Every structure is written in structure tokens, then in C-alpha cells.
Amino acid sequence: MTQSDRRIWLIKELLSENPQYRDYEIPADEYSQKRLLRALFNVRLPKSISDEFLKIQDEYLQEETRLKGITDIDDLAPVRDGIYLWQGDITTLRCGAIVNAANSALLGCFAPNHGCIDNAIHTYSGIQLRLACNEIMQKQGHEEKTGTAKITPAFNLPCKYVIHTVGPIVGWHLTEKDKKLLASCYRSCLEIADENNVQSIAFCSISTGEFHFPNDKAVEIALKTVTDYKKETHSEIKVIFNVFKDADLEIYEKLLGTD
Question: How far apart are CA 238 and CA 201, in angstroms?
């Protein structure tokens, strides 16, 4: 099957799961097909599906990531001992684990084609990620607390694991509690990574998007927490600070002294 064949097959299978979608007309152009497929991934509830679907989905997603281009941590140069700064799409990074800025339900973003990192990670990992998160949450029996972390396989992503953490949601103004909870996110991710012998971890900018944490303060907390953790525990884990926007890159470069 070509990528086009796989995409159309997956769309048809997902549409057929819901009676209200069965007469939906599949767009003719590639861009619209990709958006439709992503939307169907996003809204799908965590439930079982055929091995055939998973096989074709995995082939499709892995090829999509390959076409986007994979960056390996071994090809990056550290800006400090064990510390890296990289601007790019975190779903294309090959390393030990990437961090997902999750919500308290921990099931991924259900908004079709939403621009958050939670949506992107769940989309390109595949439906298995939502199933794995749902299993964790069913056993846990309550929403994930802010500042904690859970680990799952990465499935179709180039990394080995995804570490999910729920950052603080900032209200009218930033509080000391918000700062402590964000620091807890970073430390919890590092702890669970070391517990699972993860050799490298890539942090996104936790809480700075939809959760409105000021970017400059978030970077300060991220750098201090990681530096303190590595010093206190003598952890040799490699840490990548991943940014997507130029503004975030400039803040990291200034604080790291690399600008």
C-alpha cells in the first residue's frame, strides 16, 4: 500500500466505527485527508481495534515521521555538560523519552486538529497511546495531580517513552504555588526517567501554552530544577530543552549564555 492507500483505508475504518460518519465524503486532496485522519484520531475514545488497523496505522505514522525527518540526540551538540537546546518538532526526536504537557485526564487532546503538543504527540504516537493512558487512569481511579508524572511506551514515535506531566494552570497572576508545581513537573519527570533507566529526556515548554505560564519564568524554573536535580542526585541523564517558537529559543539562549 502507498501512503495515500493507507490514509484512505484508515479514514474509512475510523468513519465506519460511528454510524453518523458512515456517509461522510472523503476529501480528494492530500492536505484535507490528513486533517480528517488526524481529527478522527483525536476524537476517538480509548477502545480496542483490529490488529490489521494497528498494522496499517503503524506503517502510515512511521512513514509520515520519516518523511518529516528524524533528529537523533547523538547528532546534537550539548550547550553544557549533559544539557542540550534544540528547536524543532518534538515528535520527530529520537531519544530516550519526550515529555508531554498533558491535562489531568491524561488521555490526550480530544479537540480535532488542535495545535497543542498533547494533540501532536497522541496523533503521531497512534491510538495505542490513548489506550495505554486510559489503562493507567482506570487503575489509578482519579485524575492526574498537577506536578506528577506517568510514563508510557512511545509506540510510533522515534523516542522510546513518553512521560506525561500535568503543569499548573496560571490564573490572573503567577503565584508561588504555580512555581513550585512547575518545578515539581520537571523533577517528577526526571525521577521517573531515572527509575526506568532512560538515558535522555526531552522537555517541552510545560504550561507555557494553553496553561498561560509566563515563558521567561518557566525557563528559569526549568533550568534551575534540572541543574539542581543533576547536582543533588548525580544523575547522568541527558536533558534536551525542546522549543518550537523563536521567542522561547531566545529566552533559553540568554539564560544559558549561548546567545
Answer: 6
How many Cα atoms sit within 13 Å of 49 on the Cβ side? 22
Nearest to 115 by CA among 153, 89, 94, 97: 89
DSSP for residue 73: G
pLDDT tens column, 14-56 = 999 988 887 889 999 999 999 999 999 999 999 999 999 999 9
How many Cβ atoms from other residues are within 10 Å of residue 14's Cβ? 22
Residue 183: pLDDT over 70: yes
pLDDT tens digits for 216-244?
Answer: 899 999 999 999 999 999 999 999 999 98
Sign of CA dihedral 114, 208, 257, 202: negative
High-pLDDT (> 70) share of the chain, %:
99
Residue 61, all three cell numbers: 505514522
| Distance (Å, whole) CA 247 – CA 113 | 23
Alpha-carbon distance of 63 to 125, in angstroms, equals 12
Q: How far apart are CA 220 and CA 178, in angstroms?
A: 13
pLDDT at 259: 58
35 to 40, 57, 226: CA distances (angstroms):
9, 15, 36
Within 10 angstroms of residue 86's Cβ, the number of other Cβ atoms is 20
Three cell numbers written together for 174: 503567577
Looking only at the bridges linking them, the beta strands covering 149-153 and 238-243 are unpaired
